Amino acid sequence: MIGSKKKDGQKTQVFVTGWLVMLLAVPAYAWLSQELLDQIDKNRADVAKIKDIVLNGDQKHQAFDRLAILGEKFTTRICGSQELEDSIDYIAEEMRKENIATVYFENVTALKWSRGKEFAEILTPLRRPMSIMSLGSSVGTNGTLTAEIVVVKSFDELKARQDVAGKIVVYNQVWQGYGTSNAYRTRGASEASLKGARGALVRSITDFSIYSPHTGQQDYYENITKIPVACITVEDAEMLQRYQDRNVSVTVSMTTEPVNHGEVITRNLVAEIPGSVRPDEVVIFGGHIDAWDVGTGSMDDGGGVMISWQALSVIKKLGLIPKRTLRVVLWTCEEFGLVGGEAYYNAHKEASDKVSLIMESDHGVFNPYGLKFSGSGLARAIMEEILKDLNDINTTRVLEGGGDSSDTGWWVDEKKVPGVELYSGNENYFYFHHSNGDTMTVLDKDQLDRATILWATAAYAVANLDGLLPRDGDYPTTSSVSTRPLSVPNAATAAMALLIAYQLMRRQQ
Questions:
Q1: In whole angstroms, what is the distance from residue 236 CA to residue 213 CA?
Q2: What is the pLDDT of residue 505?
Q3: Cα Rg for the chain, rounded, in angstroms?
Q4: List of the chain residues with pLDDT < 70
Q5: Residue 145 to residue 504: CA distance in whole angstroms
Q6: pLDDT score for 503
Q7: How far, in Å, CA of 76 to CA of 82, rounded?
Q8: pLDDT for 160
Q9: Residue 225 near residue 194 (C-beta atoms within 8 A)
């Protein structure tokens, strides 16, 4: 009796496994109504045109060539600089030459900071120069600051030490991912000041280094003594740690001359192809036009800027006009506290119900796999169906979550606008981030083309749907289940799964 029950349980387990395999074989479009599927089908010929002109036509490698000009003609697009404003004017003028219907600026108030001269040196127990970069908004040393150092690996270690006053704090924090390690760059000077330090040096926020310092923004606490702060290389931070571990006293001198200039006016750049049916409803896509004053800003975020501009250019050149307005926004001064993105959101958030989708690429444009998507399950299924036309260039994946980027997070998190971030092979992104290594050398012509196709397809196809992408809560009902049969490969997979289950059941008998 016990053996019979066991055998029956095995039969049931095998049968259920077979059905689960079959259900997993059902494609994403089983969620979608035939009406939605028909709307997406109507875009397929246009998507084919987008692919052809970028892969085989006169738009081939144009994204790379344009990006090279942007990064190498306007190299230091730091917030508040003339080069940033000149780059904004340059792109606007080039867009107008392409007869893009609407190109305009929106003024933004931001703080201007410039780097100035900077130098550091180990004085004892040996003389050795150190490569440094002042962190954004840092004050200068007001001459040369010379002091003994104290090395810590964490804020907890800093707080526990009683020998910090009058010294330079060196942070040698372990890399724990950008989100965690970045706290030492943004808060390091303030935490050191609270302990009476005269200056701070922060191990660069990167998981790999070839003696390369990485800059970035830092923020002082309110009502605190502002002390100079700079980043140093991973190699120097680890060397200074070893000196301390051997009980060797180290004296360092640092000279920095940054200037905080106060408030200036900069601009977000906006360009549009008006919609043919619902011009008041929009799909927004873009990147941030500013960059740090090191490298050429080609990766962060020249690539995101360029695939957005190029996507709009391709759609315009092909004469494609979707139902809704396509709007490119190139946000300013992202590196200095998301200034342009926040200003744009505050100016337009009351019209969030008219935004079908918002897209930003700000994590590098490398080998594109697809999109990171934040929104409802139904909206994600729509995006999956749209990207099936890109199977031949391997950019079909739609990841759940991660669609809220630096300049778009408010729209996604507060207004529940569906959001997209580019999903690409950016595992080495922080090797080059905010360093002199952020140049055209880290980018690839063909990958930029494929990312442009992906970006243009997603924006155009969503803008050309009859309705807005459904927001959170608009989940499919029984009436929205597709009547389309399983595709041949998935039907074959399901049939094979049932056949295997049947054979296994027979063996158990």
A1: 10
A2: 52
A3: 27
A4: 1-31, 472-509
A5: 78
A6: 58
A7: 9
A8: 98
A9: no
Per 3-state DSSP, the chain is made up of helix, strand and coil in percentages (nearest 5) of 45, 20, 35
pLDDT in the model for residue 484: 44
CA–CA distance, 240 with 215 (Å, rounded to integer): 19
Per-residue confidence (pLDDT) for residue 101, from 0 to 100: 84
Going through 115-153 in order, the beta strands assigned E by DSSP cover 118-124, 128-130, 132-134, 145-152
Instruction: Please list, residue by residue across 380-406, b when 16 or more beta carbons sit within 10 angstroms of its beta carbon and e when fewer do.
Output: bbbbbbbbebbeebebbebeeebbbbb
Amino acid at 313: S
pLDDT confidence of residue 32: 82
Whether the CB-CB separation of 395 and 341 falls below 8 Å is answered with no
For tokens 């303030």, name the residue.
190
Question: What is the structure's pLDDT at 311?
Answer: 98
Helix, strand, or coil (residue 114): strand
CA distance 296 to 303: 11
Helices (H) and strands (E) in the chain, counts: 15, 16
Question: According to DSSP H, which parts of 161-219 are helical?
Answer: 178-194
Which residues touch 143 (CB under 8 Å, ≥6 apart)? Answer: 255
pLDDT at 20: 43
Q: Which tokens go with 36?
A: 């939605």
Q: Does the active-site annotation cover 334?
A: yes
Contact 28, 385 (CB under 8 A): yes
Residue 380: per-residue pLDDT: 94
Catalytic site residue from 85, 118, 272, 334: 334
Q: Which of 389, 335, 309 is nearest to 93 (CA)?
A: 309
Return the HEC string of 391-411: HHHCCCEEEECCCCCCCCHHH
Which SS3 state, helix, strand or coil, does residue 297 take?
coil
CA dist., res. 480 & res. 33, Å (int): 5
d(CA 107, CA 376): 33
For residues 149 and 127, what is the distance between their CA atoms, to the nearest angstrom?
Answer: 15
Q: How many CB atoms lie within 10 A of CB 73?
A: 12
CB environment 78-99: b (16+ within 10 A), e (fewer) = bbbbebbbebbeebbebbeeee
